[in-house]
Design goal:
With 88 residues, the chain is mainly α. The protein has 3 helices and no strands. The chain has one domain (3-82). The chain is flat and about 45 Å long. 2% of the residues are buried.
Length: 88
């Protein structure tokens, strides 16, 4: 791994720790929801760094799938917290 990849990986780990703190300590449910969404984005970042570092393209496929699942999950959680049903 190059120095850039190591620094980027370290920053992503630090940001993940901060998101986990916000998920556990967040004052409200919307704050926790945003932190969970950001954590999903950070996981996509981890996958992209692994794709660049190893040269394997399937990490990018994992990142795309994770982003889609994270987006749909965030929408479902937001609708649940709003009190609406899923078919509206």
């Amino acid at each position: 791994m190059s120095t850039f990849e190591q620094i980027a990986f370290g920053l992503l780990v630090l940001c993940s720790m901060l998101c986990l703190y916000r998920i556990g300590k967040g004052p409200s449910a919307p704050d926790r929801t945003v932190a969970i969404d950001i954590l999903g984005t950070l996981i996509v970042g981890f996958c992209c760094i692994m794709a660049v570092g190893t040269g394997r393209e399937y990490y990018m496929n994992i990142a795309i799938a994770w982003a889609l699942i994270s987006f749909v999950g965030t929408l479902a959680l937001a609708k649940y917290l709003e009190g609406r049903t899923y078919d509206a």
